[in-house]
Amino acid sequence: MEWLGEKFKDLIKENNSSIVKLAKKTGVSRQTVTDWINGQIPKGNHLINLCKIFKVNPDFFFSKDFDNSISVPVHRTRRTAKVTSAMQKDAFEMARTYEVLFKNDANSSVLPVVRVHNRTDEIAKKIAEELRKRAGLSQDIPPDYEHTFSLLAYLGIKVIFRYFPEKIKAYAFYTKIHGHRIVFVNNSTNIIDLIFPVLHESVHAIRDEIQINNGFDTEEENFCDKVASYIQFSDEYVHKVYNVINSLSAGVQVNKLKTYGKTNSHALFGIAKRIKAIDPDFDLKIGGADSNLKKGFPSIGDILFLSNDPRDYVAKISALSPLFTSIILNQIDSITISKLGEMLGIESVLDAKAVKDELIKLKSAAP
User: pLDDT tens digits, residue range 54-65?
Assistant: First the structure.
Protein backbone atom coordinates (compact mmCIF):
# COMPACT_ATOMS: atom_id res chain seq x y z
CA MET A 1 0.00 0.00 0.00
CA GLU A 2 1.58 3.26 -1.12
CA TRP A 3 0.47 6.87 -0.63
CA LEU A 4 0.42 8.58 -4.02
CA GLY A 5 1.78 12.05 -3.35
CA GLU A 6 1.85 13.00 -7.03
CA LYS A 7 -1.81 12.08 -7.39
CA PHE A 8 -2.57 14.31 -4.40
CA LYS A 9 -0.60 17.13 -6.04
CA ASP A 10 -2.55 16.74 -9.30
CA LEU A 11 -5.82 16.88 -7.38
CA ILE A 12 -4.83 20.21 -5.85
CA LYS A 13 -4.20 21.65 -9.32
CA GLU A 14 -7.38 20.20 -10.81
CA ASN A 15 -9.44 21.90 -8.10
CA ASN A 16 -7.75 25.29 -8.62
CA SER A 17 -6.39 25.11 -5.10
CA SER A 18 -2.88 25.63 -3.76
CA ILE A 19 -0.65 24.52 -0.93
CA VAL A 20 -1.42 27.74 0.95
CA LYS A 21 -5.20 27.43 0.49
CA LEU A 22 -5.25 23.76 1.41
CA ALA A 23 -3.12 24.35 4.50
CA LYS A 24 -5.60 26.96 5.69
CA LYS A 25 -8.60 24.74 4.95
CA THR A 26 -7.18 21.74 6.81
CA GLY A 27 -5.65 23.72 9.67
CA VAL A 28 -2.08 22.58 9.07
CA SER A 29 1.15 24.28 8.02
CA ARG A 30 2.24 24.68 4.40
CA GLN A 31 5.17 22.39 5.18
CA THR A 32 2.75 19.64 6.24
CA VAL A 33 0.91 19.84 2.92
CA THR A 34 4.27 19.74 1.12
CA ASP A 35 5.18 16.65 3.16
CA TRP A 36 1.94 15.00 1.99
CA ILE A 37 2.87 15.71 -1.61
CA ASN A 38 6.35 14.27 -1.01
CA GLY A 39 5.05 10.99 0.36
CA GLN A 40 4.10 11.40 4.02
CA ILE A 41 0.71 9.84 4.78
CA PRO A 42 -1.79 12.29 6.37
CA LYS A 43 -2.75 11.15 9.84
CA GLY A 44 -6.23 10.65 11.22
CA ASN A 45 -8.81 13.31 10.63
CA HIS A 46 -6.55 15.10 8.11
CA LEU A 47 -7.12 12.22 5.66
CA ILE A 48 -10.84 12.34 6.34
CA ASN A 49 -10.91 16.12 5.77
CA LEU A 50 -9.02 15.77 2.50
CA CYS A 51 -11.58 13.22 1.31
CA LYS A 52 -14.40 15.63 2.16
CA ILE A 53 -12.68 18.59 0.49
CA PHE A 54 -11.96 16.74 -2.75
CA LYS A 55 -15.04 14.48 -2.61
CA VAL A 56 -13.11 11.23 -3.03
CA ASN A 57 -12.81 7.97 -1.12
CA PRO A 58 -9.68 7.46 1.04
CA ASP A 59 -8.37 4.68 -1.21
CA PHE A 60 -8.20 7.19 -4.09
CA PHE A 61 -4.90 8.39 -2.64
CA PHE A 62 -3.32 4.93 -2.43
CA SER A 63 -1.87 2.52 -4.97
CA LYS A 64 -4.22 -0.22 -6.12
CA ASP A 65 -1.86 -3.08 -5.25
CA PHE A 66 -3.22 -3.18 -1.71
CA ASP A 67 -3.99 -6.73 -0.62
CA ASN A 68 -7.07 -6.86 1.59
CA SER A 69 -5.83 -10.10 3.18
CA ILE A 70 -3.16 -8.01 4.94
CA SER A 71 -3.86 -4.74 6.70
CA VAL A 72 -1.14 -2.46 8.02
CA PRO A 73 -2.83 0.43 9.81
CA VAL A 74 -0.86 3.61 10.48
CA HIS A 75 -0.15 3.55 14.18
CA ARG A 76 2.25 5.28 16.51
CA THR A 77 5.91 5.78 15.69
CA ARG A 78 9.03 6.37 17.78
CA ARG A 79 9.08 9.85 19.27
CA THR A 80 8.59 12.45 16.50
CA ALA A 81 9.17 10.10 13.55
CA LYS A 82 6.72 10.63 10.70
CA VAL A 83 4.72 7.90 9.00
CA THR A 84 5.81 7.72 5.36
CA SER A 85 4.79 5.56 2.43
CA ALA A 86 8.26 3.94 2.59
CA MET A 87 7.65 2.96 6.21
CA GLN A 88 4.21 1.59 5.33
CA LYS A 89 5.61 -0.32 2.37
CA ASP A 90 8.33 -1.99 4.47
CA ALA A 91 5.81 -2.90 7.19
CA PHE A 92 3.47 -4.36 4.58
CA GLU A 93 6.29 -6.36 3.00
CA MET A 94 7.27 -7.73 6.41
CA ALA A 95 3.68 -8.81 6.99
CA ARG A 96 3.53 -10.42 3.54
CA THR A 97 6.25 -12.89 4.63
CA TYR A 98 3.64 -14.60 6.83
CA GLU A 99 0.70 -14.58 4.42
CA VAL A 100 0.87 -18.27 3.53
CA LEU A 101 1.51 -19.32 7.14
CA PHE A 102 -1.64 -17.62 8.41
CA LYS A 103 -3.71 -18.47 5.36
CA ASN A 104 -3.04 -22.16 6.07
CA ASP A 105 -4.13 -21.85 9.69
CA ALA A 106 -7.84 -21.85 10.46
CA ASN A 107 -8.66 -18.88 12.71
CA SER A 108 -11.94 -20.11 14.16
CA SER A 109 -11.63 -18.90 17.76
CA VAL A 110 -13.93 -16.19 19.10
CA LEU A 111 -11.79 -13.14 19.86
CA PRO A 112 -12.54 -10.39 22.39
CA VAL A 113 -13.75 -7.16 20.77
CA VAL A 114 -14.51 -3.81 22.41
CA ARG A 115 -16.74 -1.43 20.47
CA VAL A 116 -17.72 1.83 22.14
CA HIS A 117 -18.96 5.01 20.51
CA ASN A 118 -18.23 7.41 23.36
CA ARG A 119 -14.48 7.46 23.72
CA THR A 120 -14.49 9.08 27.14
CA ASP A 121 -11.92 8.98 29.89
CA GLU A 122 -14.26 6.94 32.08
CA ILE A 123 -14.75 4.27 29.40
CA ALA A 124 -10.99 4.14 28.79
CA LYS A 125 -10.48 3.42 32.49
CA LYS A 126 -13.14 0.70 32.51
CA ILE A 127 -11.55 -1.08 29.56
CA ALA A 128 -8.11 -0.77 31.15
CA GLU A 129 -9.35 -2.13 34.47
CA GLU A 130 -10.85 -5.20 32.79
CA LEU A 131 -7.67 -5.86 30.82
CA ARG A 132 -5.52 -5.49 33.93
CA LYS A 133 -7.65 -8.16 35.60
CA ARG A 134 -7.19 -10.45 32.59
CA ALA A 135 -3.42 -9.95 32.84
CA GLY A 136 -3.53 -10.99 36.50
CA LEU A 137 -2.36 -7.62 37.80
CA SER A 138 -3.08 -6.17 41.21
CA GLN A 139 -4.06 -2.51 41.21
CA ASP A 140 -0.83 -1.21 42.70
CA ILE A 141 1.74 -2.50 40.18
CA PRO A 142 2.36 -1.87 36.47
CA PRO A 143 2.69 -4.82 34.06
CA ASP A 144 6.18 -6.00 33.18
CA TYR A 145 6.94 -7.31 29.69
CA GLU A 146 5.91 -10.87 30.62
CA HIS A 147 2.50 -9.74 31.91
CA THR A 148 2.11 -7.65 28.76
CA PHE A 149 2.70 -10.54 26.38
CA SER A 150 0.48 -12.77 28.50
CA LEU A 151 -2.33 -10.26 28.02
CA LEU A 152 -1.79 -10.29 24.25
CA ALA A 153 -2.14 -14.08 24.22
CA TYR A 154 -5.45 -13.80 26.11
CA LEU A 155 -6.64 -11.31 23.48
CA GLY A 156 -5.85 -13.77 20.68
CA ILE A 157 -2.91 -11.73 19.39
CA LYS A 158 0.04 -13.49 17.78
CA VAL A 159 3.34 -11.77 18.58
CA ILE A 160 6.17 -11.84 16.04
CA PHE A 161 9.62 -10.72 17.16
CA ARG A 162 11.78 -9.21 14.40
CA TYR A 163 14.56 -6.68 13.93
CA PHE A 164 12.84 -3.93 11.95
CA PRO A 165 14.28 -2.34 8.81
CA GLU A 166 15.56 1.19 9.42
CA LYS A 167 12.57 2.77 7.64
CA ILE A 168 10.08 1.25 10.12
CA LYS A 169 10.61 3.75 12.92
CA ALA A 170 8.41 2.02 15.47
CA TYR A 171 8.71 -0.13 18.56
CA ALA A 172 5.82 -2.28 17.37
CA PHE A 173 2.98 -2.25 14.87
CA TYR A 174 -0.36 -4.02 14.56
CA THR A 175 -1.67 -5.76 11.47
CA LYS A 176 -4.22 -8.36 10.49
CA ILE A 177 -3.27 -11.25 8.20
CA HIS A 178 -6.09 -13.48 6.96
CA GLY A 179 -8.13 -12.59 10.02
CA HIS A 180 -5.32 -13.22 12.52
CA ARG A 181 -4.44 -10.42 14.92
CA ILE A 182 -0.69 -9.83 14.75
CA VAL A 183 1.62 -7.49 16.64
CA PHE A 184 5.14 -7.19 15.25
CA VAL A 185 7.69 -6.27 17.91
CA ASN A 186 11.04 -4.64 17.16
CA ASN A 187 13.76 -6.73 18.82
CA SER A 188 15.94 -3.62 19.19
CA THR A 189 13.50 -2.07 21.66
CA ASN A 190 14.41 -1.73 25.32
CA ILE A 191 11.85 -3.67 27.34
CA ILE A 192 10.75 -0.64 29.36
CA ASP A 193 10.19 1.32 26.15
CA LEU A 194 8.27 -1.59 24.71
CA ILE A 195 5.40 -2.06 27.17
CA PHE A 196 3.33 1.03 26.35
CA PRO A 197 3.41 0.75 22.53
CA VAL A 198 2.62 -2.97 22.69
CA LEU A 199 -0.35 -2.24 24.98
CA HIS A 200 -1.40 0.51 22.54
CA GLU A 201 -1.39 -1.93 19.62
CA SER A 202 -3.29 -4.53 21.64
CA VAL A 203 -6.04 -1.98 22.29
CA HIS A 204 -6.28 -1.40 18.53
CA ALA A 205 -6.70 -5.14 18.10
CA ILE A 206 -9.66 -5.45 20.45
CA ARG A 207 -11.16 -2.23 19.09
CA ASP A 208 -11.66 -4.10 15.81
CA GLU A 209 -9.29 -1.68 14.10
CA ILE A 210 -10.24 0.66 11.29
CA GLN A 211 -7.87 0.44 8.35
CA ILE A 212 -6.23 3.53 6.97
CA ASN A 213 -8.20 3.25 3.75
CA ASN A 214 -11.42 3.32 5.77
CA GLY A 215 -10.68 6.61 7.50
CA PHE A 216 -8.45 5.89 10.48
CA ASP A 217 -8.68 8.85 12.87
CA THR A 218 -6.60 10.68 15.45
CA GLU A 219 -9.34 10.50 18.08
CA GLU A 220 -9.11 6.71 17.99
CA GLU A 221 -5.32 6.90 18.33
CA ASN A 222 -5.67 9.14 21.39
CA PHE A 223 -8.30 6.86 22.91
CA CYS A 224 -6.03 3.82 22.51
CA ASP A 225 -3.21 5.84 24.09
CA LYS A 226 -5.46 6.55 27.09
CA VAL A 227 -6.45 2.92 27.54
CA ALA A 228 -2.82 1.77 27.23
CA SER A 229 -1.72 4.38 29.78
CA TYR A 230 -4.39 3.28 32.26
CA ILE A 231 -3.43 -0.37 31.78
CA GLN A 232 0.20 0.42 32.48
CA PHE A 233 -0.39 2.82 35.35
CA SER A 234 -3.51 2.30 37.46
CA ASP A 235 -4.87 5.24 39.46
CA GLU A 236 -3.83 3.45 42.66
CA TYR A 237 -0.22 3.19 41.52
CA VAL A 238 -0.09 6.78 40.28
CA HIS A 239 -1.46 8.16 43.55
CA LYS A 240 0.87 5.94 45.58
CA VAL A 241 3.91 7.28 43.72
CA TYR A 242 2.64 10.87 43.82
CA ASN A 243 2.00 10.75 47.57
CA VAL A 244 5.57 9.60 48.16
CA ILE A 245 7.31 12.21 45.99
CA ASN A 246 4.94 15.18 46.33
CA SER A 247 6.70 17.04 49.14
CA LEU A 248 10.26 16.19 48.11
CA SER A 249 12.82 18.35 46.33
CA ALA A 250 13.18 17.94 42.56
CA GLY A 251 16.42 15.95 42.80
CA VAL A 252 14.99 13.52 45.32
CA GLN A 253 11.78 13.21 43.26
CA VAL A 254 13.82 12.11 40.24
CA ASN A 255 15.71 9.52 42.29
CA LYS A 256 12.48 8.18 43.80
CA LEU A 257 10.89 7.88 40.34
CA LYS A 258 13.97 6.02 39.12
CA THR A 259 13.62 3.61 42.03
CA TYR A 260 9.98 2.96 41.15
CA GLY A 261 10.91 2.55 37.49
CA LYS A 262 13.71 0.13 38.29
CA THR A 263 11.59 -1.90 40.71
CA ASN A 264 8.52 -2.08 38.47
CA SER A 265 10.17 -2.08 35.03
CA HIS A 266 8.74 1.08 33.52
CA ALA A 267 10.10 4.23 31.91
CA LEU A 268 9.70 7.59 33.64
CA PHE A 269 7.87 9.63 31.00
CA GLY A 270 4.63 7.66 31.25
CA ILE A 271 4.30 7.88 35.02
CA ALA A 272 5.32 11.56 34.98
CA LYS A 273 2.57 12.26 32.44
CA ARG A 274 -0.02 10.50 34.62
CA ILE A 275 1.11 12.45 37.69
CA LYS A 276 0.83 15.72 35.76
CA ALA A 277 -2.80 14.81 34.97
CA ILE A 278 -3.61 14.94 38.70
CA ASP A 279 -1.25 17.83 39.46
CA PRO A 280 -0.90 20.27 36.53
CA ASP A 281 1.95 22.06 38.35
CA PHE A 282 4.09 18.90 38.32
CA ASP A 283 6.85 19.62 35.79
CA LEU A 284 9.83 17.44 36.63
CA LYS A 285 12.74 17.25 34.17
CA ILE A 286 13.42 13.53 33.76
CA GLY A 287 15.04 13.12 30.34
CA GLY A 288 18.54 12.31 31.59
CA ALA A 289 17.28 10.13 34.42
CA ASP A 290 15.08 8.17 32.01
CA SER A 291 18.02 7.53 29.68
CA ASN A 292 20.18 6.35 32.58
CA LEU A 293 17.41 4.08 33.84
CA LYS A 294 17.12 2.35 30.47
CA LYS A 295 20.81 1.43 30.52
CA GLY A 296 20.00 -1.07 33.24
CA PHE A 297 17.43 -2.91 31.11
CA PRO A 298 17.98 -5.14 28.06
CA SER A 299 16.23 -5.02 24.71
CA ILE A 300 13.70 -7.75 23.97
CA GLY A 301 16.20 -9.13 21.44
CA ASP A 302 18.86 -9.36 24.16
CA ILE A 303 16.43 -11.45 26.21
CA LEU A 304 15.52 -13.75 23.32
CA PHE A 305 19.12 -14.36 22.23
CA LEU A 306 20.89 -14.11 25.59
CA SER A 307 22.57 -17.51 25.43
CA ASN A 308 22.61 -18.10 21.65
CA ASP A 309 21.18 -21.50 22.53
CA PRO A 310 18.38 -22.76 20.18
CA ARG A 311 16.70 -24.65 23.03
CA ASP A 312 16.63 -21.54 25.23
CA TYR A 313 15.35 -19.42 22.33
CA VAL A 314 12.48 -21.83 21.58
CA ALA A 315 11.54 -21.91 25.27
CA LYS A 316 11.39 -18.10 25.34
CA ILE A 317 9.30 -17.58 22.21
CA SER A 318 6.97 -20.36 23.38
CA ALA A 319 6.42 -18.46 26.63
CA LEU A 320 6.20 -14.94 25.20
CA SER A 321 4.36 -15.78 21.97
CA PRO A 322 2.49 -19.06 22.51
CA LEU A 323 -0.11 -18.51 19.78
CA PHE A 324 2.40 -17.77 17.03
CA THR A 325 4.60 -20.65 18.20
CA SER A 326 1.59 -22.97 18.06
CA ILE A 327 0.95 -22.05 14.42
CA ILE A 328 4.61 -22.62 13.58
CA LEU A 329 4.48 -26.04 15.27
CA ASN A 330 1.33 -27.02 13.36
CA GLN A 331 3.12 -26.41 10.06
CA ILE A 332 6.74 -27.12 11.03
CA ASP A 333 7.05 -30.18 8.75
CA SER A 334 6.26 -28.10 5.66
CA ILE A 335 8.37 -25.04 6.56
CA THR A 336 11.84 -25.04 5.02
CA ILE A 337 14.84 -24.17 7.16
CA SER A 338 15.49 -20.95 5.23
CA LYS A 339 11.83 -19.87 5.48
CA LEU A 340 11.79 -20.62 9.20
CA GLY A 341 14.91 -18.50 9.67
CA GLU A 342 13.25 -15.65 7.77
CA MET A 343 9.96 -15.84 9.68
CA LEU A 344 11.68 -15.96 13.06
CA GLY A 345 14.20 -13.32 12.03
CA ILE A 346 17.10 -15.45 13.26
CA GLU A 347 19.21 -15.80 10.09
CA SER A 348 22.18 -13.86 11.46
CA VAL A 349 21.74 -14.90 15.11
CA LEU A 350 20.98 -18.62 15.41
CA ASP A 351 21.29 -21.81 13.37
CA ALA A 352 17.81 -22.16 11.83
CA LYS A 353 18.22 -25.93 11.43
CA ALA A 354 18.98 -26.32 15.14
CA VAL A 355 15.95 -24.16 15.98
CA LYS A 356 13.75 -26.28 13.72
CA ASP A 357 15.00 -29.44 15.44
CA GLU A 358 14.07 -27.95 18.82
CA LEU A 359 10.61 -26.99 17.54
CA ILE A 360 10.06 -30.53 16.25
CA LYS A 361 11.06 -31.89 19.69
CA LEU A 362 8.61 -29.48 21.31
CA LYS A 363 5.84 -30.61 19.00
CA SER A 364 6.59 -34.28 19.71
CA ALA A 365 6.52 -33.66 23.46
CA ALA A 366 3.10 -31.95 23.32
CA PRO A 367 0.19 -34.06 24.69
Answer: 888 766 777 655
* Residue segments in the chain with a per-residue pLDDT below the cut of 50: 66, 74, 210-216
Same domain, 260 and 117: yes
End residue of a domain, out of 51, 66, 81: 66
Do both 171 and 245 map to the same domain? yes
* 22 plus 137 within the same structural domain: no
Question: Residue 110: its pLDDT value, please?
Answer: 61
**Which amino acid makes up residue 261?**
G
143 and 124 in a common domain:
yes
In this structure, are 188 and 206 located in the same domain? yes
By DSSP bridging, strand 70-71 and strand 172-177 are: antiparallel
pTM of the predicted model as reported, rounded to 2 decimal places: 0.80
- Regarding beta strands 70-71 and 180-186, do their DSSP bridges make them parallel or antiparallel, or are they unpaired? unpaired
**Residue ranges making up the domain that contains 300:** 67-304
Q: How many domains does the chain have?
A: 3
For residue 208, the model assigns a pLDDT of 63
pLDDT of residue 57: 72
The radius of gyration computed from the CA coordinates of the chain, to the nearest angstrom, equals: 22
